[in-house]
Sequence to fold (463 residues):
Amino acid sequence: MVTNFLQKYQLQNHQLILPKKQFITYALYALVALAFLHYLLFYPALASGKSVVVAQVQEEVAAVVSARVDAPEQLLPLPPPPSPNQGDKALGNRQGRALGFPEEVPAPPPCDYSDGEWAPEARPPLYNGTSCGTIKDGQNCMAHGRPDTGYLYWRWRPRGCDLPAFSPEAFLRWLRNKHLAFVGDSLARNQAESLLCLLASRSPPELAYRDGEENRFRRFVFREFNATVSVFWSPFLVKVAEKAEHAGVRHNNVFLDAFDERWMSQLGALDVAVLSVGHWFLIPGVYHDGGRVVACHDCADLNHTETDFFGVFRDAIHRTLAEVTRRHSDGAGKKKVVALTTFSPAHFEGDWDKTGACPKKRPYRAGEKGLGYTESEMRKTVVEAVRSGADAAGAGSGLRFAALDVTALANLRPDGHPGPYMNKDPFGGGGAGDRRVQNDCVHWCMPGPVDTFNEILLQTVLR
Ligand SMILES: *[C@@H]1O[C@H](CO)[C@@H](O)[C@H](O)[C@H]1NC(C)=O
Ligand SMILES: *[C@@H]1O[C@H](CO)[C@@H](O)[C@H](O)[C@H]1NC(C)=O
Ligand SMILES: *[C@@H]1O[C@H](CO)[C@@H](O)[C@H](O)[C@H]1NC(C)=O
Fold:
């Protein structure tokens, strides 16, 4: 069936002329999406053993994943254990910078965060699996028994500039009397929950509102600062009728010409919107525009022409930014930052449901692990949309678009995913063996590399 799938693609996608390697990456994503992202993105709360994915599909994924074994990879050595002095010094320096800022924070200079390397860091994260109460179960690697801790001691060092450590104080002061919202899929939620934990290390948030299954809509308030952080579920940004496996609907029906008012209607009240989507475009979808089906991804069972998802992704992003700009200029024109987090790569290395699906314990070195074709295209789409959105909005409009360009730095962190620790004590105290176990190699452990996304967010809002 894998072969059929590939043939179908080659036959039906005449425009899609890709070199073989790129094509394999593309097909891999399509299949991982089919069999697992699917599962992971939809049923994160199911207990293990209730897998909705049939064994045959698992085998297909395994076949394609193993076809994509990359060149031998070197890993960074683990950082030396911090000596107490060293630790203090690092702590002093970084905290000094964080806490000793003047009332008026000077705007940091522009920085290209997409080029850099992970460097050892002695300072521990600002929170841990027990100190923060809002970590989603599936991402609480510490509480779920992940034994290694080396993945916590790295910081991103951009090549041409400095990325200061996260300062909860600076962020909360900036957010005083403001409202920041995350809008998107489960990676948006992952980043939102990281920010909540980082800020909670300074001031406790209160849950002010909650709605929807899986806490899809939430609002938190940091009373001391009257600072609001909300989370909106909107995996395509535009309107969608989500698939319902139980009712036999395995495709999302996405409406490119209709906006998702669940968050769009709140725009006027927001000072910052962080949009983060991408992975849901890789799973089966039918795309509508003007009452017609214009695209269909993973459509073997429907009477529509199969297309890729890059075009509709670009379309959804561009239309969303254009609509944000339109509503901004119609409204009171409250100053606003709209930041888009670029695609966050997954790191499956073998069978997704076996021990060791993302087993690495250290980051890759700079330049050692190139970006896959899909990741690179998804990132580029966002970066270009931000650039053209900014041109269209114009300076002086009070509306600023920015890309949180995390794709490259996230690509170098195969060690940062929950893997089997998406479930508590996955090996039940016994040895790992080669038994079947669910692995999350898409989302990020908390604390973990996703905290760096918010270090960049802080620099972005201050700018
Ligand atoms: C987590 O952080 C709290 C508060 O800082 C601390 O008391 C606790 O020892 C930490 N736990 C771990 C496992 O590091
Ligand atoms: C609190 O913050 C909200 C924005 O989230 C703002 O509209 C409101 O005016 C603020 N309250 C005060 C007392 O400043
Ligand atoms: C599929 O679509 C074509 C063209 O619209 C139509 O002629 C054909 O009857 C359809 N087949 C099925 C099985 O619906």
Notes: The longest helix spans residues 20-42. Confidence is low (pLDDT under 50) at residues 1-31, 42-103. The pocket of 2-acetamido-2-deoxy-beta-D-glucopyranose (ligand 1) is lined by residues 128, 130-131 (CB under 6 Å). The two ends are 51 Å apart (CA to CA).
